[in-house]
Request: fold
Amino acid sequence: MVAVSRCRVCDAPIDAFMSFGRMPIANGFLTANEIPNEYFFELAPAFCGACGMFQIMEQPEPEKMFHEQYAFFSSTSRHMQAHFEGFANAVLGRVLAGRADPFVVELGSNDGIMLRHFQRRGIRHLGIEPSINVADVARGHGINTISEFFGRKLADDIVAEHGHADAILAANVMCHIPDLPGVAAGVQRLLKPDGVFIFEDPYLGDMIAKTSYDQIYDEHVFIFSVNSVARAFAMHGLELIDVMPQTTHGGSMRYMLAPKGSRAVSAAVGDALAKERAQGLDQGGTYLRFKQNCEASRGLLMRTLEKLPGKGKRVVGYGATSKSTTVTNYCGITPDHVEFISDTTPIKQGKLSPGAHIPVRPYTEFTRQYPDYALLFAWNHATEIREKESAFIAAGGQWIVYVPEVKIVS
Ligand SMILES: [Zn+2]
Reply:
């Protein structure tokens, strides 16, 4: 376990403003035999008043969090495939157009879901994916990938071998890396003087507005805001030149950075900073209200589960997501409340959910005999799911949702 008492970005002293309590590894699905050795840590977020960075105080060692057998393959989601095609097209059109022999690097390139759009066009590219079995899948598709951790040292090596990069990309990766200053120094080293660094991650403004506290779990060491990203990278000579809100992961932000003074700064940056000040994202009091909102959400969700209309009603969880681990453990949801969690991922089926030990069963168990209520853990895909499950509603089923508020909906 790695616990900090100082901000990972600016080194100012920080303190947790709340605790979600004893928490297992979010993706640590386990068998009954493994229960005695289940690992727990305290999930407690802090807000750095000095640089505005939202972060968790304790984090399990990476080897506890990123099991090879639970490797997440981005390309299994059709929705995410379309999203990354859009991301790649934005880079091709806005950054690479007209450049001679451009070079694109992606941090945390996974199975190549984004880089394949560059590879297909014959563009020089390099994926950096520390997870060896995931990188192997990318290499199998002809995508140049190395399995190392990115920082200043690797940036030197890449420059020596391939030259500087026109674009460095990252999606849902930066918020996982505790040594943000080390990565920022590597990006600064690797980027061409007229290059850009574009990344996206779940957005703090959405999390606070929606009380979507399930964004907070072991892998998400940071939840970024426009303000905290601008300040963290300014320390390494990189300027935030544009921001673009995204609907993915329940509300994300795409950030575009460039060497300071190399490009015009979009009005969207100033607008987003003003919006964050209006929302109070720079004020400690906002986080105390967030804590109260989390407690209220927890209370209402548990009252809802415990007093469902009608006797003997069946409740099934929908989607054994990493996010759901924070919800089940913080709220105290047990197999008495939720019969099982339906999930399409074979490796999770037949296991128990982390901490709460709710059985995970195949999706066919959900459709075979629809429950009366489905607790929507995968709420960030609500639109797609509710379209897909019209037969569940037609059979009289109802959804229990908790973001942005707790309610029962058809
Ligand atoms: Zn700080």
About this structure: The pocket of zinc ion is lined by residues 7, 9-10, 12, 48, 50-51, 53 (CB under 6 Å).
